[in-house]
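Usage

Read records sequentially. Each one opens with the input sequence:
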Amino acid sequence: MTWPAYLTSELQSVTDGTCYIEPRHFPEALAKHRPRGQAWRYHGKWTTYCPSRSLTYKNVRRLDPRSDEDFWTVLSEARAANMNPPTSFADFFMSCYRAPLARGSVVAPFRRFTFGGWQTVFQRGEFTGKFYLYDLNSAYRWAASCGLPHPGTAYPTKDFSKQQAIYLVELPINVIPYQRGGRLAVVTSEERDFFGLQSVTTLKVRYGVAFRSEVSLAETFEKIDKQFPASAKRISRAFWGLWNTTAAPQQVSWKHGEKIRDLRNPFFNPIWSAFVTSRVKLRMALHRTRALRIYTDSILTTEEIPTGQGIGEFKEVREFDNIWIRHAGYWGTRDETLAASGVRRPAHLTTF
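and closes with the structure output:
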């Protein structure tokens, strides 16, 4: 698709280029063109529509613009890199990504698994004292830069002692704090070593894949930093979603009547997703005995923990003298929580 690109809801004013619009305007775009051309939907929501070769509508939310100025900064970086107008930050990542794809036979045993962050509260209620909130710097970028298994060197195994491997196992209850026991689970060799799972006699290995070498994505992120300095942080936060889903957009065309084609995600790699997300969880698990709450890459603790400026090191965000926790996503000081709920605290109250 040719430049220029537009950020607008005035569909009638655009005749060529790429027009980024809110998803709610896609029915209007389809009606305007009665419909024709091709379109793409992801999880039932319109993401891209090309009524002709000269005009494309795209979902502006995929680029997460904070403002019009921010949107144009993102687009100017794409244009400077000689990219087509991007659909999402994944397009930026893929323009710098040079790593082998995982074969279908390697990922097949793990196809029904996806991975996310650890979100939990160890204690609920009101607390007084000194508390510390930390974030892990560039958590997922750090995790991916530590080296990932080379999918081209994979081979099946049930040997639970391989240096670099991933397994499907039956876990006993409470062996890994962020995984439920009593069912089939994915465990990396790093999790095995961290939690001492080799000594758990009731653990059963159903299947495993080991690897002979690693792949480094450090050069990929260095290239992203150089080409997209204003967008690098968001690219490095969202990139791994490419590997974490089998879903891909539906392609809809109207050339010979409406035709829907379900596409496949060629970048699906649950093995890399497992390693990336588990490394972040293991960093949090190091401090779980002093933690009140863990939310993906942030941790609320009762004691100070070491900090640093590098990726993969903790930075202190804030200190608190009192905390009120209901669940992982609902917490804060008593005053902040009341304010968020619209409840006013009486001025004469100085304590809980």
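Summary fields computed downstream for this record:
- Residues 5-99+216-262 form one domain.
- Residues 270-285 form the longest helix (16 residues).
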